[in-house]
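Data follows
____________
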Amino acid sequence: MKKVMLSVIAALAVTAAAPAFAADMPVKAKKVVVATPSPWDIAFGTALTSDYVLRGVSQSNHGPAVQGYFEVRYNINDMWQLYAGVWSSSLWTGLANAEVDPNAGVRLALGNFGLDVGYVYYGYPGGVTATLNNGSYGEVYIKPSYKFNDMLTIGGIYETGFNDFNAKRNSVIGGGAAWVGDARHSFYAVNAMITLPWQPAGLTVSVNPEIGREVYSSGVTLNQGSVSDTFWDVGLILNYKAATLDLRYWGTNAKPSAAGNQCGNTTTGGPNLCGDRYVATLKFDTTFSALK
């Protein structure tokens, strides 16, 4: 009997110790493979606007316009991004029926500071009239920004064609006359993105004011009629996932002249492309990486 009891006790001791032995045994960990995100991405979107307004001047004769873009991006690292793409819009300017703008540049993200430097070519396919041999032209731009917090980001833009606005391929009325004088053009603006702290039903609500100045040299005014002006706009932006509704008020101090300018011609009549107005734009934007 005594031997039986000793055997039972020994068996229980081995059984109780077994889990401890198993826990102490080394276990070979499974190899975890972390997929490296691709540095490449493509952003694209489309928009429908009630009036295509560019710096206070309607490009669609106060009518609706359809717009779209795509942009190829390459992320060098967390700070630097290269990009190239094209933006286009239907329009009415008396020059062409469409605008196609290739662009390329580099973006820097350094903490809360951002910088976008690039080149854009304002292209107007088939844009030939009695007064303009070619209305297309290229400019370089610089866009700095600083995010103070989740509610406020301040930004700016400076863009210039140096002394080659409209590529100097323009001709004055009568056709064939050479461009006279300089051809400098630039514009600068400051803006803010104010995001409200509440998000009803996942909707992000922001206010986006902007004020800017478009500067034309005396040569541009002489040959083309465009005059320097100040423009302003403020938008109420409602964003839900990939959809954005932009409700914006535009204004400018430019007015049509008797000789004709970017707003119109009071002598020959026609539409006033300037003046204060409300514009509604519905946009859809996403990226390939967001769709995965």
Q: What stands out?
A: The longest helix spans residues 2-24. The longest strand covers residues 98-110. Residues 1-25 have pLDDT under 50 and may be disordered. Helices lie at 2-24, 218-224, 288-291.
